[in-house]
Write a structure and sequence with these properties.
alpha/beta; Rossmann fold; Dihydrodipicolinate Reductase, domain 2; 2 domains; 7 helices; 11 strands; binds 1,4-dihydronicotinamide adenine dinucleotide; binds ligand LZUJQKHR
Length: 242
């Protein structure tokens, strides 16, 4: 496949390395600040020159990059977090243009299993009662958005099945209805997410810890291999049949 990479930072470079191993060609790289690369723009690419675009940039640029890809007729796999206030607009545009958009707050297969077990656990823990629940995420100090996209997906999964939690708060809960999300930024931590249930008698935890970015890169490439030819908005549940 010919892949257009949008964003050539930590994730873009991890994807490029794995794409080569999987026999893909990098059709081009669009990065706002990568001066060593040949300058390129999304509008330079069409389905004739790229089969799919993979976007990992910044919360402030993801929506514009996604819409540019859709307008060029390029299927787009987006991994940037912190832009979901625009997600409905992206869905509408995808439908209008009969385009292809894939989004995941976390492309790691392990995290998507974690999401699945998180929802199951929330339903059971609510049923048995007596537990409070909180989410903790730990990332490297360069991370811009807080809470992480993964923590927000985790919180949404809890709230769907643990109805006494009706909203999340980034910090300690101020009321019993709030789900606390604690964010830590330290060193070069790749990404750790923990859900903790505590009662008077015990504590139960569900944890995912990424050891490298390779798991995210592999998931993004699996999505890029799967997306072309499908019309609509998709995520890891469809890809992994979870
Ligand atoms: N969904 C997932 O599985 C994962 C998502 N992420 C998310 O992906 C995004 C990128 O993460 P990293 O690669 O670690 O960041 P990074 O800061 O290492 O790289 C981002 C790159 O995007 C470039 N960039 C910024 N604005 C741009 C624009 N308007 N057009 C083109 N390029 C632009 C920057 O110059 C930089 O090279 C973040 O939002 C992060 O939260 C990161 C890891 C996994
Ligand atoms: O910025 C990162 O690094 C990561 N971002 C994603 C998120 O916000 O959840 C996924 C992963 O945790 C790494």
């Amino acid at each position: 496949m010919k892949i257009l990479l949008i964003g050539y930072g930590k994730m873009g470079q991890a994807i490029a390395a794995l794409a080569a191993e999987r026999g893909h060609e990098i059709a081009g790289i669009v990065d706002r600040s990568a001066s060593q690369l040949a300058p390129a723009d999304i509008t330079d690419f069409t389905p004739a020159t790229a089969d799919v675009a993979i976007e990992f940039t910044h919360p402030d640029s993801a929506f514009a990059n996604v819409t540019a890809c859709l307008r060029q007729g390029l299927p787009v796999v987006c991994g940037s977090t912190g832009w979901l206030h625009h997600f409905e607009e992206a869905q509408t545009l995808t439908q209008e243009l009969q385009g292809s958009l894939f989004y995941a707050s976390n492309y790691s297969v392990g995290v998507n299993l974690f999401f699945h077990f998180n929802e199951y656990l929330a339903a059971k823990m609510h049923l048995f009662g007596g537990y409070d629940v909180a989410v903790r995420e730990i990332h490297h100090t360069q991370k811009i958005d807080q809470p992480s996209g993964t923590a927000l997906t985790t919180a949404e999964g809890i709230m769907r099945h643990f109805p006494t939690k009706t909203r999340w708060r980034n910090g300690p809960a101020e009321t019993a209805a709030e789900l606390a999300i604690f964010s830590e930024r330290t060193g070069d931590m790749v990404g750790t997410h923990v859900v903790t249930y505590s009662s008077a008698v015990d504590t139960l935890e569900l944890k995912h810890e990424a050891h490298s970015r390779e798991g995210f890169a592999l998931g993004a490439l699996l999505a890029a291999e799967w997306l072309p030819g499908r019309v609509g908005v998709f995520g890891m549940k469809e890809l992994l049949d979870l």
